[in-house]
Amino acid sequence: MGDDDHGFTDSQLELLTITNMVSNMLSLIGSSFIVISLYCVSRRSSRLHGHSGLLESIHYRLVLWVSQADIVHSLSSMLGNPQDKSVLCYTQGVLSQLSLNTSFCCVLCIAITLWGTFVHEWPLGEPEFDAALINRYRIGVLSFVGVTTLIPFYGDHYGLSLIHISEPTRLLSISYAVFCLKKKKKKKLKI
């Protein structure tokens, strides 16, 4: 029972990889269902009533954005554990950063919208108000995500093993990152 480079046995690594793939597939299926459903309902509504139906609601638009970001993240996580400094590693790092920050921002926008609706009685449903709010959200989300996705390029941090820390539900990624942190601490103590 030999350890591999990550400190896991082959059977442990295989179990972590399978768990990661299953969670990504479930997430991908669920988010894809949401996206396809919203587009189908919107298209049908547009054809029958001349408007985009559910997607005219800010809440549904934000759910669509979160679902699209989750699809990107699930696909990027399925790239496995590419070699450090490879093009695939950089691609995975950028897509993970981009999608996770987009999800974070969209969930924050949903929370702000709910707060505004229930606490401040925002006039959601009024076309001018909705258009202004969604434009503010777009600018805020794109600005935050753009900056936080580009920052790691400054120090060339996308190609490092620690970029694989994507989220707590990704067992292989988090376990690998914890091992790397422990390994680096041991090296610092010896020096």
Attribute tags:
191 residues; mainly alpha; globular; disordered C terminus
Task: Briefly characterize the structure.
With 191 residues, this protein is mainly alpha-helical.
Describe the structure.
The protein is mostly helical and 191 residues long. Helices cover 73% and strands 0% of the residues. It is built from five helices and no strands. Helix 1 runs antiparallel to helix 2 (58-77). The longest helix has 40 residues, at 10-49. It is globular. The model is unreliable at 159-191 (pLDDT under 50).
Produce the secondary structure layout:
Blueprint: H1 10-49, H2 58-77, H3 87-118, H4 127-154, H5 171-190
Helix pairs in contact: 1-2, 2-3, 3-4
| Tally of helical segments | 5
Order of helices and strands: HHHHH
Note the beta-strand portion.
under 5%
How many whole angstroms does the radius of gyration measure? Answer: 20 Å
- Major sheet details: none
Mean pLDDT: 77
Distance between the termini: 30 Å
Structural class: mainly alpha
Strand tally, please? 0
Shape: globular
Q: What is the helix fraction of residues, given as a range?
A: over 70%
Q: Which regions have little confidence, pLDDT < 50, spanning 5+ residues?
A: 159-191
